[in-house]
Write a structure and sequence with these properties.
Elements (H helix, E strand, L loop, with lengths): L3 E5 L4 H12 L3 E6 L15 E4 L8 H4 L3 E6 L10 H17 L5 E7 L9 H14 L5 E6 L2 E2 L4 H12 L2 E4 L6 E2 L2 E2 H12 L8 E4 L5 E2 H12 L4 E4 L5 H11 L4 H9 L12 H4 L8 H9 L17 E6 L2 E10 L3 H9 L11 H13 L19 E2 L2 E7 L3 E6 L5 E12 L2 E12 L1 H10 L1 H26 L1
Parallel strand pairs: 1-2, 1-4, 2-3, 4-5, 5-6, 6-11, 7-10, 8-13
Antiparallel strand pairs: 9-12, 14-15, 15-20, 16-17, 17-18, 18-19, 19-20
Length: 477
């Protein structure tokens, strides 16, 4: 296809999910972003055109809109702090104005599902206003109003996930009794993509939600049941919004600046009132809440993670998509094969390169707890997928490039260790990542209590690999 599709908000959650789908369909994609470097972690980054700009600077849209036939408007300004509603309105005005003088034939906007006749929060009011501004322009706009989006990385879902995982008893305001119609991110993407090929959708407003209507509280408790956790919610009035936002910012990966408007957005119901979407998009049948959550839980693995957390820093510690992640990177004056040889040779009779006795102690403790303990290696000279390396199992490998081990110890969660070796000008960029997906309060306590040990072991192992790889390189020369 020769059509160029512009995606604003390309570094956001929906933008990250949408772009690879557009590429799969054969569209040319142009990403409009303020910080292009944030796209580099994605495998598809080199397949898209990048236009640097800011919607608050109308002139930066001129080149971005050149030869574009359709544009996805996926921007919000919640993270910009106070008075973000005015910035959202200004951004929408600039886009609608500049689109009028361009080749653009369609704007597709994803907003929030709320009803203006109800008492709703400022965030949802702003979402509705943005839609009005875009639809008032000369370029036809298709507006989707989505309820709570269920997907790994969705701010709303991540707040639910992290809070429910940590606390057997949650205290919340009565607004949690308001109704929502949670929708799987896959269904949201299906609507967005279908709008490109559905002329009848031009200029329309479509309320989209999943097949189940339930309160926010019921959604949280349903997640708990599907996760195998027993949870209760205690409703208390007059809980300060700022306090709830600060707690969410502290206890979840969602920043307080974003948590506050999201929590405020629950003041009104978020369920479908207006029919019609099924007539225009008859082939899309949104899945039930249960199926949407199970799909997310089935993706709880490093291979399914959106790599937005990779920032190129020497040390990166983040909480994202159900994981605690600790990543270290260093550039080595050695070949990728030499570095990989060191990584792939650890465990078994050779032991681990740092504090081997501590690794063996962990294995003994695991054995006593009913786990596999230290089992040695399937082969002391080579590695293949599904091989045993002490209390790990080889989950995935690319010889000379990547090795990921999954821990099989008894623990309240799932853990992985991963090493990647990438060629660089200096020789090799070595990346070591520890992943842990906690389950329930014991999982969080396990990670927090052992965090000092993790820091010591992970950092020491990383340095030992680097030193050993350097010696191998010197021997070869």
């Amino acid at each position: 296809m020769e059509q160029i599709i512009l995606v604003t908000g390309a570094t956001g959650y929906i933008g990250n999910c949408l772009i690879p789908r557009l590429l799969e369909k054969g569209y040319r994609v142009r990403a409009f972003v303020r910080e292009p470097e944030k796209l580099q972690a994605h495998a598809w980054s080199e397949q898209v055109e990048v236009a640097r700009g800011d919607l608050l600077d109308a002139n930066s849209l001129v080149s971005a809109l050149e030869n574009v036939t359709a544009a996805f408007y996926l921007v919000h300004n919640m993270s910009s702090g106070r008075h973000y509603e005015a910035r959202e309105a200004a951004s929408a005005c600039n886009f609608a104005s500049m689109a009028a003088g361009s080749s653009l034939r369609q704007i597709i906007y994803l907003g929030g599902l709320a009803h203006p006749d109800e008492r709703i929060g400022a965030h949802m009011r702003s979402r509705l206003q943005t839609g009005e501004i875009l639809r008032s322009g000369r370029v036809p706009a298709t507006e989707f109003r989505a309820s709570l989006i269920i997907g790994s990385g969705s701010f709303s879902f991540e707040m639910i996930r992290w809070l429910i995982e940590q606390f057997p008893l949650l205290v919340g305001p009565p607004l949690l009794k308001n109704l929502a119609q949670p929708i799987a991110v896959q269904d949201v993407l299906a609507y967005l993509l279908a709008a490109l090929e559905t002329p009848a959708s031009l200029g329309g407003i479509y309320e989209i939600g999943g097949s189940d209507t339930l309160s926010y509280a019921d959604a949280m408790l349903s997640y708990a049941r599907l996760r195998g956790l027993k949870r209760r919610i205690l409703f208390l009035p007059w809980i300060p919004m700022n306090l709830m936002a600060k707690l969410a910012g502290w206890l979840t990966p969602v920043p307080a600046l974003i948590a506050r408007p999201l929590i405020g957005g629950m003041r009104g119901s978020s369920n479908v009132h207006t029919a019609g979407v099924e007539k225009v998009f008859p082939d899309i049948h949104p899945q039930p809440f249960r199926e949407a959550v199970l799909q997310v839980l089935g993706q709880l693995a490093p291979s399914r993670l959106d790599p937005v957390w990779r920032n190129g820093a020497p040390l990166c510690r983040v909480r994202t998509q159900g994981f605690f992640i600790e990543n270290r990177q260093v550039r080595l004056d050695a070949s990728p094969d030499a570095v990989y040889q060191v990584v792939a040779g650890m465990g078994g009779k050779k032991g681990w390169l740092f504090l081997d006795r501590l690794w063996r102690l962990r294995g003994q403790i695991d054995k006593l707890a009913g786990g596999p303990g230290m089992r040695g290696r399937s082969s002391e000279t080579s590695l293949s997928e599904n091989d045993i390396v002490d209390y790990y199992r080889v989950e995935s490998l690319e010889s000379g490039r990547m090795l990921r081990l999954k821990a099989e110890v008894k623990a309240p969660g799932q853990g992985w260790m991963e090493w990647r070796t990438l060629p660089s000008k200096e020789g090799t960029l070595l990346s070591q990542t520890a992943f842990f997906a906690p389950k329930g309060m014991p999982g969080f306590a396990y990670w927090v209590v052992l965090w000092p040990v993790h820091v010591l072991v992970f950092a020491g192992l990383f340095r030992a690999i680097a030193r050993q790889a350097g010696r191998l390189k010197n021997v070869k020369t």
